[in-house]
Amino acid sequence: MKIARFRSNGRTAFGVVQGDVVVEIRGSIFTRFRLTDTKYPLQDVKLLPPTEPSEMWGPGLNFANHLEFAAGVLGDENPTIPKHPEPWVKARGALTGTGEPIILPKDSSGDIHYEGEAVAVIGKICRRVTPQEAPKHILGYTCGNDVSDRTWQRDDWTFWRAKGADTFAPVGPWIDTDVDPQKLEMIVRLNGEEVQHGHTEEMLFTFAEIVSYISQHVTLRPGDLVYSGSTGVTVAMKPGDLVEVEIPGIGVLSNPVEAEAAA
Length: 263
Hints:
By secondary structure, this protein is mostly beta strands. 10% of the residues lie in helices and 39% in strands.
């Protein structure tokens, strides 16, 4: 099942995507809901970020083939594979949806990269769960882009603006509740050219392990988002670019890139 959050005629609602239509629902996507008779052509609605999370989490370095590149960004000459997840919070204000622009801040270095990832959507209150229990607390999965300013990432003590600036967390287009999270393919295209390609089976720590690890100290709530981490090497985006994150079987997250307007 593909669950979308959308706006139509000034109303925000949830619906189930069925082919080229979205069927509005009544109830909560986190408990119970039913399909209504109200349907909209998918092309006529505005797709929004699939949930309104209280928190968004990155796992830290979670792919071996991204380790050396990321270490170079941070100036670490001797990178080592982490022994456990190193989660961090991505600013809630960075959230944006498919079709919305990624805004490159006017005072940034200009070295701002895409990072195409899969994203778990928490479905139930999640506190001190085991890796075996964690999947029961995940509603489904969607596409994400962990946009990152490499200069700020290296020069600041934290990722507060490098990964948390406004629009630096595109997520969507919807939640898929029926996929194997460790068998997802992640493809990034920049202006139609494939620039990143990975598989979640290569994650150093699975979604279940990451969610469990976070939950030992922080309560995850319905709608919260947990990223997979990024693979390989990335390059900078520039105004006028179009970046697409595709997970076959789920969908395509598409965002144009724009420069911040002058004050």
